[in-house]
User: What shape does this take?
Amino acid sequence: GAVVSQHPSWVICKSGTSVKIECRSLDFQATTMFWYRQFPKQSLMLMATSNEGSKATYEQGVEKDKFLINHASLTLSTLTVTSAHPEDSSFYICSAGGGTGVNEQYFGPGTRLTVT
Amino acid sequence: KQEVTQIPAALSVPEGENLVLNCSFTDSAIYNLQWFRQDPGKGLTSLLLIQSSQREQTSGRLNASLDKSSGRSTLYIAASQPGDSATYLCAGNTDKLIFGTGTRLQVFP
Assistant: This one.
């Protein structure tokens, strides 16, 4: 149980275009979802926290107009990178809370974004 | 603000050795502490989660301990194998997960 999927697993896009990444909780309802970013050889940095039906809370330094997060249902959250630039190239990982584990997050497999 | 650090940053050992990976955190008001494994270019695999009321958790050759008062956790790997080679991350949970800097482990035959 507590499986989280992400789609796509990797994507290449041109500079200036927008990319949408989906995060789904497959077998439980995720009241809260989290989005992380990981640059090469660095640890995960939390970008934002989203609760179903409400606006996301962004961490300091993360541009909310650039990284649009939608958490419209208890099983789906999306991250849209708008007007992507090469410096947005990174590994994006989502996690979901609300499974059987108390205060536990379940992680998706990640999405590799390359902006050319 | 929670800060999580891990020592050592990298470790290279022959197989069979018993290993200790260290994690320290500044905010002791954590709900739990979690250890993850990450293979190159892959997502996270959860290894062990220790609730704040617990002292340790064990899974196979892995044992993780938690000392909230000193802000420390250790991951003990017994009889290391080449398949254990990966980056190990710890994360403290205080309404959000704050990840450590990671320990890159290489176990050679």
Notes: DSSP finds no helices and eleven strands in chain B. Chain B touches chain A at residues 31-32, 34, 36, 41-44, 46, 49, 51, 89, 91, 93, 96-102 (CB under 8 Å). The radius of gyration of chain B is 13 Å. The mean pLDDT of chain B is 94.
